[in-house]
Amino acid sequence: MNLEKVRREAEKLRKIILQHNYQYYVLDDPEISDSEYDILFKKLIKIEQEYPKLRTPNSPTQRVGAEPLSEFDEVKHTIPMLSLANAFDEKEMTRFYERLKGELSINNLVFTGEPKFDGLAVSIVYKNANLEISATRGDGYIGENITQNIRTISQVPLTLIGLNIPDELEVRGEVFITNKDFANLNIRQKRENQKIFANPRNAAAGSLRQLDPKITAMRPLSFCAYGIGNYKGGIKLTEHAQVLNQLQHWGLPISSEFRVLKGLDMCLDYYKQIVDKRSQLQYEIDGVVFKVNDFNQQKTLGYVSRSPRWAIAYKFPTPEEITQLIDIEVQVGRTGTITPVARLKSVNVAGANITNATLHNLDEIKRKDIKIGDWVYIRRAGDVIPEVVRVIKERRDNVKEFKMPSKCPICRSDVKRQEGKAAFVCMGGLSCSAQKNQAILHFASRKAMNIDGLGEKIVLQLTEKGLVDDISDLFLLQQNQLSELDRMGDKSAGNIVKALKDCRSTTLAKFIYSLGIPEVGESTARALEIHFRSFSLIQKSSIDELEKISDIGPVVAKNIHSFFTQKNNLSIIKKLISYGIHWNTEKAVKKTNFDGLSFVLTGSLKNISREKSKEILIKLGAKVTSAVSKKTDYLIYGDNPGSKFEKASELEIKKIDEKSFLKMIKKEGVNL
Ligand code: IVH
After folding, report:
1. What is the per-residue pLDDT across 143-181, written as a single tens digit (0 to 9) for each?
2. Helix intervals (H) in 302-418
3. pTM as predicted
4. In 10 A of CB 34, how many CB atoms?
5. Which domains are seen in the chain, by residue range?
6. Is 632 exposed, middle or buried (0-12, 13-18, 19+ CB in 10 A)?
7. Which of the four pLDDT bands, split at 50, 70 and 90, describes residue 384?
8. Tens digit of pLDDT for each residue in 562-573?
9. Which protein residue's CA is at the shortest distance from atom 3 of ligand 1?
10. What residue ranges line ligand 1, CB within 6 angstroms?
């Protein structure tokens, strides 16, 4: 046979196989038998074996091929992968609906309903119809490149099919394991003396994080698409329902439970139907996701912090169990907060044995009237630490009152109540080893400075031996000092020294997060980075200025401000920077709050002309450009904003309306 003819034959087989995959995995409606399918598949394999040159990277035969990786590369998400706000009961769902109705001034809102899969979010990018790259959600901004593993999932097409395929399409969806597959997987694991997985979600997570795709290929992973991210060069998409419909036409599996719902009653009804159907579903779900169908409405509603305001996860009630509270002990946290913890008679809640539950603080104990010896209801929501829901007063007998200790159980310093707050704190500061060790562990943790190998046992030895007194001392450690520690060899000591060297190149947000400022988590650190883009500006910011950032309230603003007024902290930070910690976002120190920032104007402004706005911005040291890009810091919008508004939302660029803009320039002393 001539080569061209064979090539055409192979191409034809691939197309036919692709179509049958679609019928089977997406439509759940196979047109041929398994054995007929096998014949086609074997035929293609045979051709590709005889003519390896004709093998294409996305041929259906090429799902598992790649060699094991040594680690996953990082992938930056073009559009962040956000999470969803939750509603836990009908009241909260109704409140959400009413709020949106009010904001959109529309009476009958159209939503879509889908199950909330209990798996892992992934992004899969197709370029010119071919699967190009896939990543985990990670921290929402940066995930891990798991392309090799995603390719092994039969339900994920390697090539898109159908009409109007865009130049670039980022599919977002959930990887999970069905209940039946999970049961079979654990039977196999047991037979092979391998790890037994606690639940389908853990099994899916473990399987996706395999460095060897051959292992992933043996795990029964499933996939369901629920949305898109980046989208270029395709037909205009205006509704979520249209997106899912298109995804299905392009060969991606979507939920068979997906519905378009008009008005609140239909949403509540849908929720009830899914609750009833839950046990019959093949996979684990933990709620229902409602999304505003219309993209224009989504755009108007926008985002808060890490979640869209146009969607909600209406969660199923969390299971509760009864047990006895045997004692209340206190734990000293990284920032000195004393947290009472309930010690419980072991009880199984939703598949996990629970022996401890957080009691948050003394006010909470009083409010719930919890006493030592009480019988209590325990609840566990997802991966979060279990909590005491309420006391069964009728069973109360021979109980003891809990008293907050007056001395820290770790360092014996005084314990004091924080002004105006529920929390009690140890006043020992960095001299309290609980805080010292925790601060170091937090600093070294993966989402902070990511110092691999610096675990609890090592940190304890380092502080006990006096080698490390605060986080900056880590950077003075020598390999021989480390290798002398218990559980350490020359090699692991060398690895830590290398990790300490490598970690110094970081991001501003990670650095801020790593400092362990009370209540400053990743998201707040990120907000600070985006707003100020300069460490020295954050350090110098006033409480007022901090409070202006959305998501930073008065308490967090105070925490940040007081952190940077402590001499001790400033000297540690100075040392850290002198030891080489650096990041890239820092810009030249600004003269005004506008200096160096990049602005785009859109829509019609009422009280000031665009020209005038531009002139003022430039005078204040800002740049004004016509197009929104990743480099844009702010979008100022007036009435009827166009596609720039949409683009800015996509890129998560801060948007300010005319009123706020006028306020901002007024603060800089500009009078119109
Ligand atoms: S939409 C911006 N739809 O829930 C909203 N998420 O808390 C993006 N999830 O990490 C998510 N089922 O892994 C959406 N039908 C569904 C979902 C779903 C499960 C997960 C997803 C995400 C988390 C959000």
Report:
1. 999 999 999 999 999 999 999 999 999 999 999 999 999
2. 362-367
3. 0.58
4. 9
5. 3-62 (1.10.287.610), 85-315 (3.30.470.30), 320-395 (2.40.50.140), 428-589 (1.10.150.20), 598-667 (3.40.50.10190)
6. buried
7. low
8. 888 877 788 899
9. 226
10. 82-84, 114, 116-117, 121, 137, 174, 226-227, 289, 308, 311, 313
